[in-house]
Amino acid sequence: MEQRKQLERQIIAKAMKDESFRKLLLEDPKFTLEQEAGMKLPASVNIKILEEDAQTFYLVLPGKINPETEDELTEAELMQVSGGQQEILMFPPESTQNFYGCGG
Q1: Spatial distance between the Cα atoms of 19 and 97, rounded to a whole number of angstroms
Q2: For residue 56, what are the CA distances in angstroms to 52, 86, 93, 104?
Q3: What domain range is 19 assigned to?
Q4: Do 37 and 7 form a contact (C-beta atoms < 8 A)?
Q5: How many structural domains compose the chain?
C-alpha cells in the first residue's frame, strides 16, 4: 500500500509540474501510468483520471465488501498471493494534490 501511495504522489507531482504529462494522463491514463510505473496492467483494469475544478470535489470510495465473503480472498487476491499477478495500481483524482501539499 505504501508503494501505491508513493507512486500516486509521484504521478500527481509530475502532473502539476509538467503540462504535457498532465495532458497525456488525461487523454490516455492507462498507457501513461503503465509507462510511468514501468509495468503492464491487465486488459480488464480501467483507469479513470478526474481533474477537479473550483466547483467540483471528487471523493473516491473503495469497492463494496460483501459481509458474507469479506474473509475470503478474491480470485485476483489469490493470484497475487501465489505470485501469479502483479499489483494493480489505482489512482485517485489528480485533485488530491491539495491533500499531498502539491497545490492550491
Answers
A1: 15
A2: 6, 33, 12, 14
A3: 2-57+87-98
A4: yes
A5: 1
pTM, rounded to two decimals: 0.57
Whole-number pLDDT of residue 31:
94
Residue 78: per-residue pLDDT: 62
Q: What is the pLDDT of residues 5-64, one digit of tens each?
A: 888 899 999 999 999 999 999 999 999 999 988 889 899 999 999 999 999 998 888 888
Residue 15 lies in a domain: yes
| Amino acid making up residue 27 | E
**Residue appearing with cell numbers 483520471:** 49
Task: Strands of the chain (E only): list them.
Answer: none
39: left (phi over 0), alpha (psi -120 to 50) or beta: beta
> pLDDT value at position 74?
65
Q: Is residue 10 part of a domain?
A: yes
